[in-house]
Amino acid sequence: MATSADEGQLLSLLIKLINAKKTMEIGVYTGYSLLCTALALPSDGKVLALDISREYYEVGLPMIEKAGVAHKIDFREGQALPLLDQLIQDENNKGTFDFIFVDADKNNYLNYHKRVIDLVKVGGLIGYDNTLWTGSVALPDDAPMLEFIRGYRGYVIEVNKYLAQDSRIEICQLAVGDGITLCRRIS
Hints:
This protein has 187 residues and is α/β, with parallel strands linked by helices. The protein has one domain: Vaccinia Virus protein VP39 (Rossmann fold), CATH 3.40.50. The protein has 6 helices and 7 strands; from the N terminus they run αβαβαβαβαβαββ. α1 packs parallel to α2 and α4 packs parallel to α5. Belongs to the class I-like SAM-binding methyltransferase superfamily. Cation-dependent O-methyltransferase family. Keywords: Methyltransferase, S-adenosyl-L-methionine, Transferase.
């Protein structure tokens, strides 16, 4: 699922409101949210973009280049969890990201959270995409739904429950796009 236009606009505004300079995106897909992030950053801002496939990044690269923001992007290909573990090993990375957007494999959202919470600064934001999962998170378990939706539904419910009780963050879940949960790190 791609980031919706209204969600892209929201992310851009949030990045500007918090004066973000150092951001991260986990899961690039077509590059739309990456473009929105790069456009919202100041000229010296950076976004670390992680994706398992360089092909996904290259889909949006022509628009990123046309917009003149390719210099703000540090793309790294590979599984996000090992890349995050490498970042965490360097103490200088902890608490340095202003904004992190997660829109990758839903079955690893909780694993991502357990890592990115250490990388985002106190007062920084983490955004999780697709946290309403086409509304399936509010349906009974036996409700009819596509197998793709049913397959990841439990993981999305799991991360929603975890975020709701995580005392290190304040959360706001919005019905924008397919649902976005914003987490402001408070400790």
